[in-house]
């Protein structure tokens, strides 16, 4: 069977990094068909919408999606529905990609690239399971209105709605417990139950689901403490499960433990084994078009694509091994460069991974 992969590069560094991941996927000579489509600001410019129906259709009809990133400051004054970010939010929602897996692994060669002391981060291997289609990112009502009560009655106010339905919490809980069961059996649920009703509800359901996983040790932590513990003693964590907003923030923080945001891949999965694979970072407009972005998070996302959506674990292992090799050779993009290593461009990093594969 030929697997169909939708390739959606998007904006900023999106094309530069996805190009390298496509080269890697192609070099593996698997039975895959890649089809590219516009998304984000690029699609808005071309077709008047950040997620054109043709792109969504292609994504839905594919086994997996390789996604770059969307967004650029120049679109920030557009009405929200036309902003590039609506493309990735729309794909997640329309395809039910509720389970976002963000593994934060420190490759030993990058121990000095991390902003933390090597002894704090060496050997780091944690998994953040972020709920991706609910929470305040999607809750309604939202908007700007005239305040009807409170100290600022009569003023304009902005508002959003944080909400989680029971099904949403149960299904992400199961994904996280299953992942913890296959790893070191530790699951930390991160919330803000001391303040938020939504979080107390989340916590109660986590405790209920935990009854089906007596082999997994469930703990709870408030998000402010979790942000602190991630830089104090990150290796205390095994699997973290959290909501959309907290997971977004904590995963960027965890990225720096691995040396750079350019190292953190992700998989976003739905209930039908379809997945969208993208680096955890954004479109980095500040370095776009310079051929200096780190493509490894995207290349490692392609490895996750092979493992989770195509059942090609051996090919995924090969990519991860090739990444280990290029790092061992001392090759570094600017974001992970340190004295004594060799600074390479985005495409040179791609060349090196390809060479290590052959
Ligand atoms: N999934 C997506 O498409 C996402 C899109 N965004 C969008 O991206 C745009 C920029 O957002 P920012 O907050 O600046 O986040 P960002 O992740 O794009 O960049 C943050 C910082 O990290 C650096 N960086 C990011 N990826 C890198 C890489 N591969 N190699 C080297 N350095 C890298 C950037 O140069 C920048 O200094 C915004 O429009 C935002 O909405 C942000 C996050 C995710
Ligand atoms: C558009 C944003 C919600 C994307 C983001 O920051 C992320 O998924 O990490
Ligand atoms: Mg983010």
From TrEMBL:
Residues in coiled coil: none
Any GO CC annotation of this UniProt entry: cytosol
Reaction equation(s) it catalyzes = (2R,3S)-3-isopropylmalate + NAD(+) = 4-methyl-2-oxopentanoate + CO2 + NADH
The cross-references to InterPro entries, in alphabetical order and at most eight, read:
IsoCit/isopropylmalate_DH_CS, IsoPropMal-DH-like_dom, Isopropylmalate_DH
Q: Where is this site: Important for catalysis?
A: 137, 192
Which example biological process does GO assign this protein?
L-leucine biosynthetic process
Binding site residues for Mg(2+): 224, 248, 252
Domain Isopropylmalate dehydrogenase-like positions: 4-353
| Cofactor binding: number and manner | Binds 1 Mg(2+) or Mn(2+) ion per subunit.
| Cofactor(s) essential for the protein | Mn(2+); Mg(2+)
Oxidoreductase recorded as keyword: yes
Judged by the first EC level, this protein's enzyme class is oxidoreductase
* Subunit-level organization: Homodimer.
Q: Which family does it belong to?
A: Belongs to the isocitrate and isopropylmalate dehydrogenases family. LeuB type 1 subfamily.
Name this protein carries in UniProt: 3-isopropylmalate dehydrogenase
For this protein's source organism, the top of the classification is: Bacteria, Pseudomonadati, Pseudomonadota, Betaproteobacteria, Burkholderiales
């Amino acid at each position: 069977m030929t697997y169909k992969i939708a390739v959606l590069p998007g904006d900023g560094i999106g094309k530069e990094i996805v190009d390298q991941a496509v080269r890697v996927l192609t070099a593996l000579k698997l039975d895959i068909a890649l089809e590219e489509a516009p998304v984000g600001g690029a699609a808005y410019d071309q077709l008047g919408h950040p997620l054109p129906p043709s792109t969504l259709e292609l994504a839905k009809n594919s086994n997996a999606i390789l996604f770059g990133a969307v967004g650029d400051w120049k679109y920030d004054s557009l009405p929200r529905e036309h902003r590039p970010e609506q493309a990735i939010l729309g794909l997640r929602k329309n395809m039910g990609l509720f389970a976002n897996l963000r593994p934060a692994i420190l490759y030993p060669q990058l121990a000095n690239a991390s902003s933390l002391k090597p002894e704090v981060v060496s050997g780091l291997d944690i998994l953040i399971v972020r709920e991706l289609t609910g929470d305040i990112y999607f809750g309604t009502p939202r908007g700007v209105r005239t305040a009807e009560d409170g100290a600022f009655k009569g003023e304009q106010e902005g508002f959003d709605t944080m909400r989680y339905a029971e099904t949403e919490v149960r299904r992400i809980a199961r994904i996280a417990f299953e992942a913890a069961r296959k790893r070191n059996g530790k699951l930390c649920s991160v919330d803000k139950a001391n303040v938020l009703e939504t979080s107390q509800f989340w916590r109660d359901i986590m405790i209920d689901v935990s009854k089906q996983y007596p082999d997994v040790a469930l703990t709870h932590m408030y998000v402010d403490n979790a942000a602190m513990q991630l830089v104090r003693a990150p290796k205390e964590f095994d699997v973290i499960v959290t909501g959309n907003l907290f997971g977004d923030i904590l995963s960027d923080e965890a990225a720096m433990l691995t040396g750079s945001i350019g190292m953190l891949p992700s998989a976003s999965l739905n209930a039908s084994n379809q997945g969208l694979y993208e680096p955890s970072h954004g479109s980095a407009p500040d370095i776009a078009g310079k051929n200096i972005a780190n493509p490894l998070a995207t290349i490692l996302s392609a490895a996750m694509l092979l493992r989770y959506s195509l059942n090609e674990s051996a090919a995924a292992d090969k990519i991860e091994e090739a990444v280990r090799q290029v790092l061992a050779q001392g090759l570094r993009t600017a974001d992970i460069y340190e004295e004594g290593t060799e600074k390479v461009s985005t495409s040179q990093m791609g060349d090196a991974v390809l060479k290590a594969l052959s």
